[in-house]
Amino acid sequence: MAALALAGCAQMPPSTAAHTDKAPNEVISFDIPPDALGARDPQLTAVLAKAGALAAAQPQPTVVLVTALGQDFAYLNQAVWKGVPAQHTARVNFENRTAGLGQPYSVSIRTVQ
């Protein structure tokens, strides 16, 4: 789902759309193209909201891990929260991790076991 949705974002190579080496409790993980983030691409915003809806739809509580630079957390977190229905906000938690040099921005959704 996310791979197809991200395909329309600004110049994103298909190989970085979704990670295939998932942890057992990982629902989805995908990289965020820097040019889409910098432009606040509406398609990226829509994909982030869909990620929030996916996190909220899980039968178990979830953690949304956002890896980015500090100045981008507000936008990314807000875009993901837009997809979380109000009745499910208690089941979705956020963790923000500052991206290191050369580390891609990403969003991962994991269930709490």
Word description of this protein:
Helices cover 31% and strands 25% of the residues. The protein is globular. It has a 4-stranded mixed sheet with strand order 1-4-2-3. It has helices at residues 2-6, 34-38, 42-57, 73-81, and strands at 26-32, 62-68, 92-98, 105-111. Mean pLDDT is 84; it is low at 1-17. The longest helix is centred in the middle third of the chain and has 16 residues, at 42-57. Helix 4 links the parallel strand 2 and strand 3 (92-98). It is α+β, with helices and mostly antiparallel strands and 113 residues long. It has one domain (26-111): 60s Ribosomal Protein L30, Chain: A (2-Layer Sandwich). It is built from 4 helices and 4 strands; from the N terminus they run αβααβαββ.
Features:
113 residues, alpha+beta, 60s Ribosomal Protein L30, Chain: A, four-stranded mixed β-sheet, globular
Major sheet description: 4 strands, mixed
Query: Which stretches of 5+ consecutive residues score pLDDT under 50?
Result: 1-17
Strand content: 15-25%
Radius of gyration: 13 Å
CATH architectural designation: 2-Layer Sandwich
Helical amount among residues, as a percent range? 25-40%
The run of helices and strands is HEHHEHEE
Which geometry do the CA atoms define? globular
